[in-house]
């Protein structure tokens, strides 16, 4: 690992001002630091967001749960309001990685990294959440733009995410046992915006929605309706853990289990 400078930001504005092409933001560090150890990332400076109190915490307003970008997975999983209003989100957060990852990793860090097998992107897309930054609000459908790619622009920092409270929601994850990332993960929800089904771990371009299952569940919200849909293997990942066809077969099965809860 090469030498780098390190600073703790005292505000979002200060962090944005210090950010440039040679620097990286550090949230929980659970993705960036391993990449640096492997030589896959070599920033000249790290800007730590951990000291910015405004980026932490969970609040409820009407039918929306707002979670600060620096809130850890463990805090989301343990929060009474999240467990009461969106239990599927609490379940998802409580099963990310291992204990260290859950206590250090953050919502904002996960979304900014947009790992193609990460869990949080499925919840954000599957619930139709809104990502707030220091510059604007971004809908979930616009935020995820491909493999490790997001709509974030230079100097833009995620500050919070607003999750609409659904009428019903569920999450199922078929994990790769060594990494605990999703071989396939499916988040389903039914709410004011309709039915949404988001899949992580299976797509070559990261998280994506499955319209065929959404249509089936809109007509009949049941496990049987979801599992009756045949998903194409075109464009899905194929590796030593599972073929594209295997992942395609898993998607409706997990969607049905998520509905059946």
Radius of gyration, in Å, reads 18 Å
Number of helices: 12
Shape: globular
What is the share of helical residues?
Answer: 25-40%
Largest sheet: 5 strands, antiparallel
Uncertain segments of ≥5 residues (pLDDT<50)? none
Number of strands: 14
Class by alpha and beta content? alpha+beta
CATH fold node name of the domain at 168-260: Enolase-like, domain 1
Distance between the termini: 44 Å
Per CATH, the class of the domain at 168-260 reads Alpha Beta
**What is the N-to-C order of secondary-structure elements (H for helix, E for strand)?**
EHEHEEEHHHHHHEEHEEEEEEEHHH
Would you mind describing this structure in some detail?
There is one protein chain. The strands form four sheets. The chain has a five-stranded antiparallel β-sheet with strand order 4-5-10-6-7. The chain is globular, with a radius of gyration of 18 Å. With 261 residues, the chain is α+β, with helices and mostly antiparallel strands. Among the domains are: 1-52, Uridine Diphospho-n-acetylenolpyruvylglucosamine Reductase, domain 2, CATH 3.30.43.10; 168-260, CO dehydrogenase flavoprotein, C-terminal domain (Enolase-like, domain 1). 34% of the residues lie in helices and 26% in strands. A hairpin with a 7-residue loop joins β13 (194-200) and β14. The protein has helices at residues 12-18, 32-37, 73-78, 80-85, 87-94, 99-104, 107-113, 120-127, 140-143, 211-219, 223-227, 244-260; strands spanning 5-8, 23-26, 45-48, 58-61, 64-68, 130-133, 137-139, 144-146, 149-150, 158-164, 168-175, 182-191, 194-200, 208-209.
